[in-house]
Amino acid sequence: MPRRWAIGWSAAGSIVTPKGSEASRVAGTWWLMFGLACAVYVIVAGLILYAATRGRRARGRPSALRDNAFIWIGGVAVPLVILLVLAAVTVNTTSALRRPSSDELRVEVVGHQYWWAVRYSAENITTANEIHLPAGQPVDIQLTTDDVIHSFWVPELAGKEDTIPGQVNHLRFTADKVGTFRGRCAEYCGLQHAHMDILVIVESPGDFGRWVARRQAAQPEPTSEEAARGAVVFQREACAGCHTVRGTSATGRVGPELSDFGARSTIGSGVLRNTPSNLADWIYDAPRVKPGIVMPSFRSLPADDIAAVAAYLESLK
Ligand code: CUA
Predict the structure, then answer these.
(1) What pLDDT score was predicted for residue 221?
(2) Can you list the domains of the chain with their CATH numbers?
(3) pLDDT band at 54, cuts 50/70/90?
(4) Backbone angles phi and psi of 233, in degrees to 5
(5) Atom of ligand 1 nearest to the CA of 187
(6) Three-state SS at 297
(7) Measured in angstroms, how far is the CA atom of residue 185 from the centroid of ligand 1?
(8) What is the pTM of this model?
């Protein structure tokens, strides 16, 4: 079966269509800057046109006093006022974005080459590449990295925030609207920088509560015989050394947690759509699909073993 790519399947959002508190403030500041820049452009262009068409036809001696006033007002005073207004608005916006709130949900996000680890410490939930958030509740995304500098950016929800080795950066916002918002790594971090997507799934508080309960409940036993066999292969092969599946002896920390893999929409941080045949393709030779990643290929594994592991992982929901 041909591979079904996920790249570009849902357009990334724009900063001018904000769906959250922080993004709205950033968009407001952006519109103010844009408006002022447009006004300056139109006025200056108008004066140039006026000067060019007026020519030297106007009679009378030029007044040095009027020319000086024009330069002091148009060249110094007005730009100074515009820059001071922009500085005040920018500083005010930036400080408002940093303000912690008492009921915020804490989510720890760690950048990896080339995926995102996501952890809810208080809820004891670990996942990857997809962040579930309740609408209307302030969140504090605590960002760091396991290797190089990445930048976490979901344009419709908040501004960019870098992940710096040995440091925790905070990104605070409240998502207002239920929906799925696509973000990406916004700092060049290596070969697959462009394929390091993050999905933020904003749900109603009730749906979010149900998601948390489902993630905390015991992992159900595989239902199909193939999936059960896949669980055995997963533990036998190298998979369990790098990945964690909650409630099993697989506790690897090198690759993404797979406890809820079947519920995710993409494979490889937004590269392939999550279908069983894509997953089999990925397990067979992930470095061919996404060159430069840590995950090795399993070309020597029999096809039915690969299909069984794929069935097992798709059953984890
Ligand atoms: Cu991670 Cu660019």
Answers:
(1) 82
(2) 1-214 (2.60.40.420), 225-314 (2.60.40.420)
(3) confident
(4) -60, -40
(5) 2
(6) coil
(7) 4
(8) 0.84
